[in-house]
Amino acid sequence: MTRPDGRPALVTGATGLVGGAIALELLRRTEADVYCLARDTSREPAARRVPRLLTRAAADYGMDDVLDEIPARVRVLSGDITEPGCGVPDALLPAEIGEVWHAAASLKYRDRDRAEIELHNVTGTRHVAGLALRLGARALDLVSTAYVVGERTGLITEEPVTADRPANNVYEDSKRAAEALVSELPVDTVRILRPGIVIGHSETLAAPTTFGLYSFVDELTAFRTKVEAKLGNYLDHYAIGILGDPATRGNLVPVDTVATAAVRLSLVGAPGGIYHLTNTEASRLGEALAALTGALGIRSPRWVSDRAELNSIDAALSERLEFQAAYMLQDKVFDASRTRRHCGDGLLTVPLSPERIGEYITRYLKDGAAEQVVAARKAAPGV
Ligand SMILES: NC(=O)c1ccc[n+]([C@@H]2O[C@H](COP(=O)([O-])OP(=O)(O)OC[C@H]3O[C@@H](n4cnc5c(N)ncnc54)[C@H](OP(=O)(O)O)[C@@H]3O)[C@@H](O)[C@H]2O)c1
């Protein structure tokens, strides 16, 4: 059992959605310094970028109580997880670290990007693990994904992945390898944290990301623009065909729920192992997509079970949704008993009505979140 011991924490991925929320939660719930390892960009050094993005996230999430903590307790290490030692010169390393939170990753998924994905998610995890050992960390928390189980359907327990079901894509493959790698580490406590599909903040709805639910929004928006250019108001009259089962569950979970659960596991000294950071109230795909199309002002989709039922316009959308395709057919129910045992029952129960999902999407569209995230990240190497 390892609880925070007063020594500083080290967070990777703090310029991103999940790592940023974890860093803010650590500032709120602990008293030690929080080291954030992040990349410089061609426009902005990590030393400026990290506090800027954390300050914006804190403001977006209504976490005014941590705003003063950012300049006071955040220490930035300029580095890159793909480099040996994460590219941080020895002289700049802190003397010691109590707990390492590894959230940095590549969220690409295509075969053609395999080398880059493996470099970030497998080799990068090895480098972060090496740093954790070197700095004497007693706990390492790897942010993985609940979808690491690949093609498996039905009840998914908090257990290591078995090889009998293949991964859906290279991203999932790389997450499997990262989980296996950290499981072997000689660190007192290794927790593998598996979030569902992370969405914006549960109260403010803000979401500095283009991944998951929001990639659906972006793909459908781009598709609508193209169809309108070619066929005018076609989508006002015809429901677009989508290959999938509307009863399939998609595990949408707010980013603050994920960060609160992650940090709470550490605070209560939860033992090493696998923890689902998932919503016990999973959403149905049919409801989520109806909310999405509603927010975009187009008709609810027409669900089909056979590709032959798609016309050429439907098929063009399917091509865009190649990442999401598998998840629209594989119904998964995530058992989060271990997490609930340590975090309590209420935390992971976040009912999301179709109206509420629509509000998340409307907020994302209103913020122009995709443009903002892309602009903030544009100059990052490898992104
Ligand atoms: N979003 C979801 O729905 C979801 C669901 C389940 C699991 N997860 C997992 O949660 C973790 C974080 O995902 P996210 O949604 O927060 O993604 P994100 O917003 O894209 O953040 C990724 C973070 O990783 C950093 N990073 C990438 N490559 C790096 C490198 N070479 N060196 C240092 N930092 C690097 C990025 O830094 P830059 O700012 O420099 O790019 C960014 O801070 C990932 O492990 C992901 O697999 C996410």
Automatic annotation (TrEMBL):
- One Pfam family, please name it: NAD_binding_4
Thioester reductase (TE) domain location, by residue? 11-261
Write down the SUPFAM superfamilies for this protein, in alphabetical order: NAD(P)-binding Rossmann-fold domains
Coiled-coil ranges per the record?
none
Give the protein's recorded name: Thioester reductase (TE) domain-containing protein
Record organism: Streptomyces stramineus
